[in-house]
Amino acid sequence: MSYAAAKFPSNADKSVLSVFKLIKGPIYSHCYNADRSLLAITSDNKCLVFQLSGTKQPRMFATLENHDKVVTAVDMSIHGRIVTCSQDRNAYVWEPLSDGTYKPTLVLLRINRAATCVKWAPNGYKFAVGSSARIIAVCYYEHDNNWWVSKHIKKPIKSTVNCLEWHSNGVLLACGGTDGFVRVFSGFVKGLDSKDIMANSPWGTKFPFGSLIREYYHGDYIHAVEWRSNLEKLAFVTHNGTLGIVDHQDHLQEVNSPDGLPFRALVWINDHEILCAGYSCHPVLFAESSQQWKFAKNLDKAARSSSPATTGQPGATGDAEEEENPTFGISALRKFKELDLKGKVSTEQQESAHDNAIVQLLPFAESNGQVVQVSSCGLDGKVVLYNV
């Protein structure tokens, strides 16, 4: 998969490329079109679409507002279609028209709780919606009736589905939720997907719709999952600050957050590096060395707090951390008090471009098979571009 090169000037000395303060409220989800010229974000009960042009502030392009409750997620297909889902238990597919507007079509989700996450399949002809109804709805267009319909995956999901991700083959669907499980299901839709796609899959031989292919129990909330399809590996992050990597042979590796704070998002940089982010408000890079995953470095964090003594690097003891950095806990407490009282961190305390939790990471630009720029959105209403 390739991504358009960023239209912003590169700065080798700084990880932060651009910071866009787009709305006053939180951004729960964002996405781009194929050439990175359009940006869509969630904003309360609306989806806002912006045009990106050079180093200037994104320009408002369209407002999509058919939902009557908070829009929880948005995604854009390779064809430019936008799908949104909301706490109002509905999803809409927005078809781009020649005059620059979007035509909404209601999706028949048939769920009785909030829709929480949504992802287009790589081919752009179906998408999956997770929900608090303990259901994943796999949706596709039915030409005979001219509407979007859904098929449900229910068992053995026991709680809210927090995250979804399609394998590049468009059949395997990974999910994670508040029941502490990472699961891989078959999203095979008869008449839409070809059986030949899974002919040589290491994950199995039969993939009827909704069948459970793999299941991994972690115990904490699973906030994000991400495939590395060429390696047949799946990475996930959890509320206790763990990054986990598992393959089709059920080999599992885990590494903990250097800050001890929960992760909410991740993205594969290449076959041996993963970028994570969450409540520490800055991205954290992990790298695989000698088949072991370890903390590599912090992005967008003051140098004084990036030393091994202050990051809680694996191998450092709690006693040493307290001795060499006695203000670590105090500064963290002060930071969260600032967030609680003012909704933001004061200038002298802020160490990163984001001043609230990062909830999503996306690849923005790629070079020679490696992601070189990453986009993030957060509860502070910002979208930030990083050099990796």
UniProtKB/TrEMBL annotation:
Residues 304-314 have a biased composition (Polar residues). This is Actin-related protein 2/3 complex subunit. One of its GO terms (biological process) is Arp2/3 complex-mediated actin nucleation. Keywords: Actin-binding, Cytoplasm, Cytoskeleton, Repeat, WD repeat. One of its GO terms (molecular function) is ubiquitin binding. Belongs to the WD repeat ARPC1 family. Residues 304-324 are annotated as: Disordered.
